[in-house]
Amino acid sequence: MALEPSWLARARGHIGVREVPGKGDSPVIQRWLRGLRAWWSDDATPWCGTFCAAMLQPDRVELPKHWYRARAWLEFGHRIPLPALGCIVVFERQGGGHVGFVVGYDERGRVMVLGGNQGDAVSIAPFDRSRVLGFRWPIGSSEPFVAVPLLASNGAASSKQEA
């Protein structure tokens, strides 16, 4: 596999982090929120943007002002016309949006995304390309790897209802 951006390698290390059902909160998600100086600390608030911000923060890139809002990531870095390994991808979703990192395509041409709050966890999931609002790359980072790998998926695309 090609070298990955540092934030993507960091994100892979968190696959499996989950929300705590009920009254509890994930200590990992709470740590991300504290590090980002959020004014809330629960994992019930949609946290896909929080995940992306927490993974990029150690690289000292300028985060969107409202990093907790998925669509705010359309103002992050600079636009790239095609997906690249580790780029930010922003999706439309009924009632809002979703944001994550591109890790590949599946055999049906769907974008494979490593993101937070996908089924209440950090996971890799397929998303229909028709939902993509944009691909973004951090300013000041080395140029993106244009090629994205073909990955196997479980066959079920993420629904528009998921955050």
Structure description:
This protein is an alpha+beta fold. It is built from three helices and six strands. Strands 1-6-2-3-4-5 form a six-stranded antiparallel sheet. Strand 2 and strand 3 form a beta hairpin. Helix 1 packs across helix 3. It is globular. It starts with 5 loop residues before the first helix and ends in a 26-residue tail after the last strand. 39% of the residues are buried. The mean pLDDT is 90.
In a nutshell, what does this entry contain?
The chain has helices at 6-12, 27-35, 48-56, and strands spanning 78-80, 88-93, 96-105, 111-115, 123-127, 132-137. The protein has 163 residues and is an alpha+beta fold. Helix 1 packs across helix 3.
* Helix count from the secondary structure assignment: 3
Give the radius of gyration: 15 Å
Strand order of the largest sheet: 1-6-2-3-4-5
Low-confidence stretches: none
Q: How would you classify the helix and strand content by structural class?
A: alpha+beta
Mean pLDDT: 90
| Largest beta-sheet details | 6 strands, antiparallel
Determine the strand fraction and express it as a percent band: 15-25%
Instruction: Please tell me what the overall shape is.
Output: globular
For the secondary structure, the number of strands is 6
> What order do the helices and strands follow?
HHHEEEEEE
Query: Share of helix among residues?
Result: 10-25%
Distance between the termini: 29 Å
